[in-house]
Write a structure and sequence with these properties.
Radius of gyration: 19 Å
Largest sheet: 5 strands, mixed
Number of helices: 1
Number of domains: 2
Strand order of the largest sheet: 11-12-13-14-15
Length: 257
Amino acid sequence: MQWAPQLGSPPWQLSGMDQLLEPLDFRERGFLGRVTFGTEERRINIAWTQIGSGAHYSQEVALAFWPTACTSLADGKSLCIAGKERLGNTRIQKLTFDAPLVFTSTTGLSVLVPAPIAAEEALYNEATQGRDLVRFMTQQRGVSDRLLLQFYDSGDIYSLDIGSAPQDPPYQLIAKASGATTPPVMLVPQLANPYSQLWTGDHQVHGFLYVLCFPSSELVDPLVLMDGNRDGTLDGSILASGGLWVSMGFSNGLSYQ
């Protein structure tokens, strides 16, 4: 059977049910933001907090595609948003924002002037088997201008170059869920598990960690991808059962820096 991309709205498993809040940082302009996305609504939601007054404001940004993953970048001003276009392409877009403003209306109410989009850049737009729909996306630690992605249809992990002069092609296979591999590509069968959350950390002993898990369930053990020497290259993985999760220090919040 000939392969075809997923068309229309993504599967419910990609609705961001366990998504983490992604930060935007305009503290020099008096605002901090926390970002989530709505897949079916095709939008991102920014919850702004005004420093000093503690006032809260909401902003919605409409998208031309269904978002399935979102991550903020180190500058604190930019977001990368992955999703699905109506005709089937998987798309990754970078949005860079300016700070929001607040003014006082004639009635004395504080009104938010939404943060404008200062720049928009297409980072990826393809319909390719094995790279259909992004399940997870985060900044790749230890290197600049790279994202770490997991694709939904294959479970495979890729690194995506988002620099000003990206390599061609801009993506590099890092780990596979199945099939033959040759170093440095890792074979990690547990990538086929439908994890609902990815979080990252810098562990004092184990280096940079990428943890795929079900935060609301103990039925499936977390999968930990490790970059032990912090050079930006994954060099190991472990399925951290309850005992290992504790004995290896993953559960100790004081072990992270």
